[in-house]
Design goal:
Layout: H1 4-23, H2 34-54, H3 64-86, H4 93-104, H5 116-138, H6 142-165
Helix pairs in contact: 2-3, 2-6, 3-5, 5-6
């Protein structure tokens, strides 16, 4: 025989479990940050303007005219990488299982819990630093500018796509 207090306790328990389960949304990525997206959009424009202005190649003689632009772009990208890295990445069993599966398939997973956008921004910074240093040392040919631009565009696309996806 079920007593009313036992039934009420069971209903209360079922209700608490239901509330608990609906409140537990699994988060696999960091939270969306409009400031990161705005920063990416801005640095994307500055970087593409720089590539447009150097598309015919550069000369070592007039490097000083471009130095401030290089440093501004690199500084903006590095600051964005720090912002992107500063957001905590959820650590949960689903993420661990996904990483295990990816590793079993030979796919690299994120190291040091960095987001794909932060990793892409670090690669962009490395490319722009290399471009700046080469420009300062000897100038850059039009083909070299295209090569640097191609690399940067790939990483900018990855960062913008990932950050835009987080808006969900």
């Amino acid at each position: 025989m079920n007593y009313p207090s036992v039934q009420n306790a069971r209903l209360a328990l079922v209700a608490m479990i239901a509330v608990f389960l609906t409140a537990c949304a699994t988060t696999l990525a960091p939270n969306y940050d409009q400031a990161v997206v705005d920063g990416l959009t801005s640095v994307n424009q500055k970087t593409m303007e720089h590539f447009a202005s150097t598309s015919s190649g550069t000369s070592k003689r007039d490097y000083e005219e471009r130095e401030k632009t290089y440093n501004s772009i690199i500084g903006s990208i590095d600051a964005l990488a720090i912002q992107a890295k500063s957001r905590p990445i959820p650590n949960n069993k689903i993420t661990e299982k996904v990483n295990e599966y990816l590793l079993s398939r030979g796919v690299d997973i994120l190291e040091d819990e960095a987001t794909p956008s932060a990793t892409a921004l670090e690669k962009i910074s490395e490319a722009i630093v290399k471009m700046r240093d080469t420009d300062k040392k000897q100038g850059i040919t039009a083909i070299e500018v295209q090569a640097f631009k191609g690399l940067v565009v790939i990483y900018l696309d990855q960062a913008l796509t990932y950050e835009s996806f987080l808006k969900r």
